[in-house]
Amino acid sequence: MKVTENLKNIEKHFSNLNDLCLPCDTPLEKEKYISDEWLFEQILNGSVHGHPTSTNSVDVIDFDYDLKNELLDEIISLCSNVGGRSRAVSAFYPENGYMGWHTNWNAPGLGILFSWSKAGDGCFKSYNDKTKNFEIYQDEVGWNVKGVYMRDKQQGLNLGNSWHCVDTNCERFSVGFLLSNGGMDVDFCYETLEEFELNETPNGIWI
Ligand SMILES: [Fe+2]
């Protein structure tokens, strides 16, 4: 299967990426930006962060890495093999990595997310501020796949925003693609998620 090959080839780069990461000296910041308290504060203030306010992760694009083009070609190949339209994320998380709570309202739509975890000591959290429903997905060792539907501001107002954050205590890599054209649903997008035998949760995560 082409996708399995892509993932294997991408995985070969992780030890190199880890060596290129600078140590992060802000563990306290991590606890703050992935906490429920900080999330509730943002919601009370009416802040709907599209991008994370704080993260300890590095986008592949920003690495000064001699095999970067090889890695990017593999990511582009994976994108085309899952019917993706564009690269939404390709981030490497070192130990004590995180991505603070945010909603992606400015990059809405249906996406597919492949995340790799070295030891399974990490998770993806989701929160709907209308239904007040939390969902937590523990990483498994190796590759994990999920779908995500991110709402735009208007959908967020009506149905609740697509808050999410990432917490990991071990090396983690996440690569994701938008399957739909912006916030517009396209029927065949769901076929990709069905091929991976994923089902939708109340928060619009496909697991
Ligand atoms: Fe996000």
Mean pLDDT: 93
What is the number of domains? Answer: 1
Our Rg estimate from Cα atoms comes to: 16 Å
Beta-strand content: 25-35%
Question: How would you characterize the overall build of this protein?
Answer:
This protein has helices spanning 2-11, 14-20, 27-33, 36-45, 68-81, 153-159, 187-195, and strands at residues 55-56, 58-59, 86-93, 97-102, 109-117, 122-128, 133-138, 142-150, 162-168, 172-178, 205-206. It has 207 residues and is of the alpha+beta class. A hairpin with a 4-residue loop joins β6 (122-128) and β7. The model has no long low-confidence stretch (mean pLDDT 93). Bound molecules: fe (ii) ion (FE2). Fe (ii) ion binds at residues 102, 104, 164.
Compose a concise summary of this entry.
This protein is α+β, with helices and mostly antiparallel strands. It is built from seven helices and eleven strands. The chain has a six-stranded antiparallel sheet, covered by helices on one side. It has a five-stranded antiparallel sheet with strand order 1-4-9-6-7, covered by helices on one side.
SSE blueprint:
Blueprint: H1 2-11, H2 14-20, H3 27-33, H4 36-45, E1 55-56, E2 58-59, H5 68-81, E3 86-93, E4 97-102, E5 109-117, E6 122-128, E7 133-138, E8 142-150, H6 153-159, E9 162-168, E10 172-178, H7 187-195, E11 205-206
Antiparallel strand pairs: 1-4, 2-3, 3-10, 4-9, 5-8, 5-10, 6-7, 6-9, 8-11
Helix pairs in contact: 1-5
The structure holds fe (ii) ion (FE2).
Fe (ii) ion (FE2) binds at residues 102, 104, 164.
